[in-house]
Amino acid sequence: MTIAAVIVGVLIVVVVGIGQLGGRVSGTFEDPAMAYPAALLDGANLGKADAPVVMQVYEDYQCPVCAKYSLDVEPVLVSQYVAAGTLRIEHNDLGILGNPRVPPAENESIIPARGAFCANEQGKYWDYAHWIYANQDGENAGGFRRDRVVAIAEAAGVEPAAFNACMDGTAAAAAVDAANAKSTELGINSTPTMYIGGKQYVGLKTAAELGALIEAELAASSAPPSASPAASASAVP
């Protein structure tokens, strides 16, 4: 199967997903009207584990630029590179934009980040992420209070009783704490932040700009190693 055929197949599946998602709720929340093919999903990651290029993405659900990336830019990368087996995208959900003066259970960045962990426990990570991003409602102003996040998760197809139990447990809290600690270690203080080939890129880039970086990394990873000086010297007659 050609890459073009794979891309067309992905787009067809996304369209089917749109039809299945539409009308699930009416009037309360905005339907993101998108879904990735199940074959590409791996928890909070997209693509094959052995893809030659890996892109690490660090986001905060309150970040409007992150929403732009996830809803507009990332689907293009999925169609062009993930579906072709070239790229793996790994998501890291941070809680760094919330009000630090409130308890974690009331922090509007930590709440949806914990929710992403709990949605992932039900195999609904991507549905949840897209619905959350599509329904941002300001920063630290009540848009991602606990009850509203639960309602959005339910609209995304998450079973609410298990979701709430998970949100009240320690595993979700530990996962977000670990992601935040990793971001501190990396010096991340702005979202979205991406890493491609170990190089950091901060802020929103277009699909074309990220595509160029992905292709450059692919070319570098597939290039034959250059001969060492000793080997070159021994080859001289």
Shape: globular
In CATH, the topology is named: Glutaredoxin
Order of helices and strands: HEEEHEHHHHHEEHH
Q: Can you count the helices?
A: 9
* Class per helix and strand makeup: alpha+beta
Low-pLDDT parts are: 1-26, 227-237
Describe the structure.
With 237 residues, the chain is α+β, with helices and mostly antiparallel strands. The chain has one domain: Glutaredoxin (3-Layer(aba) Sandwich), CATH 3.40.30. It is 50% helix and 12% strand. It has helices at residues 3-21, 64-82, 110-121, 125-134, 146-155, 160-167, 170-186, 207-222, 229-235; strands at residues 41-42, 45-46, 53-60, 87-94, 193-196, 199-202. It has a 6-stranded mixed beta sheet, sandwiched between helices. Helix 3 runs parallel beside helix 5 and helix 3 packs across helix 7. The longest helix has 19 residues, at 3-21. Residues 1-26 and 227-237 have low confidence and may be disordered.
